[in-house]
Amino acid sequence: MNRAIYIALVSIGLAQFIKIPIKKFKTGFWDWKTMFETGGMPSSHSAGVSSLATYIALRRGVSTIDFGLSSIFGLIVMYDAQGVRRQAGELTLKVNELDEEIERMEGQKDHHYHDRKEDRLKEMLGHQPKEVVGGALFGMLTGTIGYLLTKKL
Asked: Where do the H-state alpha helices sit in 28-105?
């Protein structure tokens, strides 16, 4: 397999895995489902694209078309992760609260039915800017380590 792709995929997997102990530290509970959720610290999107760009920069140089493409691609992905996808997540929060708001406006008592509703839209879609930066730094680290480990091969 292409080493650059392998390192980017490993970086994504590690970033997703790191979210588990971070969530445990914040909440006090182990939640293994976090491994398969979007959003959170660090951004695996950012980690993947920045590890790819870092590996290419170290292997081929920053003046190559490969590095230019991976960098622009990475910037677009990171912008999307913290911009468009985050806004979609915030919109989803409002949609999920809409039923409750209508009931409150009609004067009905809140029975917390909607808190347990199974078909709520997924709210955690995007990233805060610090999560994107954290993912990018993590990706740069894994890209560098990946380069150093494969340099001898």
From this structure: 44-60, 65-82, 84-105
For the chain, what is the radius of gyration of the CA atoms?
19
Per the structure block, which two tokens stand in for 118?
């199974």
The residues near 62 (Cβ < 8 Å, ≥ 6 apart) are none
Model pTM score: 0.74
Q: What is the pLDDT of residue 83?
A: 72
In whole angstroms, what is the distance from residue 11 CA to residue 122 CA?
Answer: 24
Q: Please, are residues 131 and 39 in contact by the beta-carbon 8 Å criterion? A: yes
Instruction: Say how far apart CA 1 and CA 26 lie, in whole Å.
Output: 37
Between CA 22 and CA 109 the distance in angstroms is: 37
Integer Cα distance of 109 and 104 in angstroms? 7
